[in-house]
Design goal:
The structure is a homodimer of 553-residue chains.
Chain A (H helix, E strand, L loop, with lengths): L12 H12 L8 E2 L4 H8 L5 E4 L8 H7 L10 E7 L3 H8 L3 E8 L4 H9 L4 E5 L2 H7 L8 E10 L4 E2 L7 H9 L4 E10 L17 E4 L19 H18 L3 E4 L3 H16 L9 E3 L7 H5 L5 E3 L8 H5 L17 H10 L3 E4 L3 E2 L5 E2 L12 H4 L11 H4 L14 E5 L16 H9 L15 E3 L4 E3 L6 H10 L12 H9 L3 E2 L21 H7 L14
Parallel strand pairs in A: 1-9, 2-3, 2-6, 3-4, 4-5, 6-8, 8-9, 10-11, 10-13, 11-12, 13-16, 16-17
Antiparallel strand pairs in A: 6-7, 14-15, 17-18, 18-19
Chain lengths: 553, 553
């Protein structure tokens, strides 16, 4: 045995420091309740320079009171914070960097703030740790990004800290657990404080995980990100939807799936009760969904197509409808929805047959990206769901159907479908020789191009021209020809000649609508189960309550 | 718009059915508390034939009171149950099938019960849904295996159902959430009932998620699965450990990792404070771990090598040690550990640089399996951690180091290391031309061979002969030669000649100990930081309290 002297190391520095900080605000706190108007000064006391701070910002739920108040902190007191944020979505998230309060950022998604992030980087006011998918970022909270502080949002809390997150729980449990069980400090903003646990609709997070609650100056901000107005669905989307249903969903027996948020997939949702019904597919496909509660799914649910939907997050206006459909949605004992982004991403990765989504650019090998010049938009959830998980071992018919040759050493594959029009609005080609992401990476000093979905994970490319069954490609050259065959008159599409296309069609490596018995002239908007938001409300029996901006039908 | 008639469908059948069942036991229940001695009759009432029943059986924590009592049910009342179990580890788990109470099984792991499962299958008394990894099985609870019933285990509960899971939380939250938020019925067995929440050490699961608690006839069963006695570590393990540390960990800057449970990796843990220290690697490698609390990690922790350890589950005897090291382990406000298998598997998949583990059989392309004839042992967690997650987007030095040519469209890779001796105990070759798993699949009617880790995910094979850097293989032929070069005198190893091996070594595709400056004669047990369980106890300052069977030093 090696010699070793008795350790004199202190092993509870984090716990002692947490205790010290909590005691330092005892004069202003009432138990766990912090006073709203003094919160900035309190944050300056509870947080220390250099801390790793998780800030809840999701697709919908935002700890926006806490982020606004933190941005008012004195940078002489609070500086060099390392912010960890699923979604960078509000102006004050970046004010933190401009004011010198925060220095480093690890994040997963930044929609509207992506331009400003690129600017802050260029100006040397921000350092980026890494850009993640949501689920990677949660994972690192338990490994090398353990937070000192978690600033999160809930709907209601009692004085013991028991938290009701509201009708969309989202990321909160994953963010809180890492801090609560590693001697971090958890501060929850809530819309309302109640005296007793019995006054809470339900408990989503136990009070012993929450150190402080503070009533926000106004309810947390929510945005309806997943509502697609059926009026904006074009006949080409209907055509592509018909191809998807007949040429992919039915062909491969897709029973569980995730949809992206584009108009293409909204069209599919609205075609199930019409075109899908005509094909006799009800009960055979699309039974289990990992999906935000898309309003365009209402007709399929009402028509009995959908067994279950587990949600990443919520969608404004869908609360009452969800609460009235507990056989389909996951709801609590109070009746309102329980979403959980961590588990839904896990399910979307490992438990579903298919991911189908849209993108902005696709190269000749089907690599894709939503990054365009000057924007660091992040990854969100698509790379997690849009890849073939090699760790999967349970088979389903669709997964096994991706195996071409009988071979016990083969693996099945997840279906990863890229569904795009060959040109974007404004005539910009979707199919390009080289992704702009490559230059963005160079300009921002990223080690690799921010590719959303890699071509080797893609099984199908679907355009208005047809479907390329890439899972059957036997070589890179063939894969390239198949992509080109459905790339229309883009430069990529012009790289394959008619003879090769005919040969690919003969082998059913590429199929066009007519090969599937789909007439382009049948693809009209009249096939949609609902053609406006108003008709979605009708389908819901008045339970769906669309936000004002969608109320113009 | 399509015509649709107002729906007359009932949308809360599950909720109504749950309510009906709960009311049916009100005469015997005291609030949420069920009487211990009547539990079989109550289960016959709360569960219905054909139900999907989640039964908590993990590596350690077992809802064994509930499984024993369910096995006593009358098969005329309870039959055709569909059991969903992370781990099938107890005799009564299979009695359920023999008695005709259960019919279908979805599971992840079956250690000692694997032979009997194969027998029940052959006798037609059991139908297998699928064999999963743990995390896939949790995922499906939110998609197509939503449970009607969850039977789980905790340490203590109060009368409102608030649950303290004990010093190892494991799978419980993942199993409970799916049932609790989809109108399933959750029944928790506990070792002890307390009157009030304040008498619980902490709350791991809120009372509103738990429908019933019942005090078990005896404390739930735990087995120390991850304790490796240093006395059984052989010099060859020391040699292989030295190669791993110098030739893989240091070479690729592995900072976060998961270890398997073999003596090989136990040797590495015990070499860090000695050999690792000599190489000046402290603080440079092995800082963050996703790992059960292996006792053999104690010397590395005490020597300051380890920043954090997040655990899948617990390990008997490590409770006090963990509670005294909260800077390293994840612990609750009460001081005891919080493990979480779902999050730890997620972290082990997406947030660590490396997985390293042993296996029973490896073929010429580095596909591996632990399945041997007649045993359906399941997958557990290895395939999840032992694959390259294509959904990962954040870079680390080790991950980027797997890229051979500079290319912005390249991806990094997770290090997946197979560490095996060329022969198993008893002279059975580890390297084989064909995995026995292929015949097992045929015999059991499985669609694919139960491969634990696929060769294309493996970056390194390490044997007592040397290291094959498979991440650098440029063709299948080269990969095969590299595997053969470290496969010793097995048939696979004899398939490559000395000249080719010399060429592979010259290109550093394969490295032998002498190529790394490691002398085989230095690999002695005296290098181990502890050579017995007693010395581990010494290192821990008496905090590690090994179970009786390890107390023979």
């Amino acid at each position: 045995m090696q010699q070793h002297s008795p350790t004199t190391k202190v092993w509870d520095t984090h716990r002692r420091e947490k205790q010290r900080r909590i005691e330092s605000v005892q004069a202003v706190a009432q138990g766990k309740v912090l006073p709203t108007e003094q919160i900035t000064a309190i944050l300056e006391t509870l947080i220390a320079p250099g801390d790793r701070v998780v800030m809840e910002g999701n697709n919908q739920k935002q700890a926006d009171f806490l982020s606004r108040m933190l941005a008012k902190a004195n940078p002489e007191k609070l500086h060099d914070l390392h912010m960890i944020m699923p979604s960078v979505s509000r102006a004050e998230h970046l004010d933190l960097f401009e004011h010198g309060i925060a220095r480093k950022l690890d994040f997963a998604f930044s929609g509207p703030q992506s331009l400003r992030i690129a600017q802050l980087l260029e100006d040397g006011m921000m350092e980026i740790g890494a850009i993640h998918t949501y689920i990677e970022l949660y994972s690192r909270l338990y490994v090398d990004l353990v937070p000192n502080i978690a600033l999160i949002a809930g709907f209601k809390a009692d004085r013991k800290g028991n938290l009701y997150t509201g009708a969309s729980t989202e990321d909160t449990p994953a963010l809180v657990e890492a801090a609560a069980f590693k001697n971090g400090i958890v501060i929850a903003q809530v819309n309302e404080l109640v005296d007793d646990e019995n006054d809470l609709p339900r408990v989503d997070i136990p009070g012993s995980w929450i150190d402080f609650v503070v009533v926000a100056d106004k309810p947390f901000f929510i945005e309806p990100l997943f509502t697609r107005d059926p009026r904006l669905i074009k006949p080409v989307h209907v055509l592509m939807g018909m191809m998807a249903i007949k040429g992919i969903y039915a062909k491969h027996q897709v029973q569980s799936l995730n949809h992206g948020i584009g108009f293409n997939t909204a069209a599919i949702e609205l075609l199930l009760p019409t075109y899908g019904e005509q094909l006799g597919l009800k009960g055979k496909i699309c039974k289990h969904w990992t999906l935000n509660p898309h309003p365009t799914l209402i007709p399929a649910i009402e028509s009995g197509w959908v067994d279950t939907v587990h949600c990443f997050g919520g969608e404004l206006g869908m609360e009452e409808y969800i609460a009235a459909r507990p056989d389909v949605f996951f709801t609590g004992s109070d009746g309102s929805m329980r979403s959980n982004r961590a588990f839904c991403q896990l399910a979307g990765q490992y438990a579903v047959d298919m991911f189908i989504g849209s993108t902005l650019q696709v190269d000749g090998l089907a690599n894709s990206s939503t990054v365009t010049r000057g924007r660091l938009a992040g990854f969100g959830g698509a790379p997690n769901m849009g890849h073939d998980p090699h760790g999967r071992r349970h088979p389903t018919p669709a997964w096994l159907d991706m195996i071409e040759e009988p071979d016990p050493m083969a693996r099945g594959r997840k279906l990863v479908v890229q569904m795009v029009e060959t040109f974007q609005a404004g005539g910009k080609p979707t199919f390009v020789e080289k992704l702009e992401a490559i230059d963005v990476a160079k300009a921002s000093g990223m080690p690799l191009a921010p590719v959303m979905i890699y071509g080797d994970d893609v099984t199908h490319v679907l355009t208005e021209e047809g479907i390329a069954h890439l899972h059957r490609a036997r070589s890179l050259e063939e894969r390239r020809a198949m992509v080109a065959a459905v790339a229309g008159i883009t430069d990529v599409g012009l790289g394959v000649d008619a003879k090769r296309i005919a040969e690919l069609r003969r082998q059913e490596l590429v199929v066009f609508p007519e090969d599937m018995g789909i007439r382009r002239t049948d693809a009209t908007r009249s096939l949609l189960a609902a053609s406006s938001v108003g008709e979605l409300v009708d389908w819901s029996g008045g339970l769906y309550n669309p936000p004002a901006k969608f109320r113009s039908w």
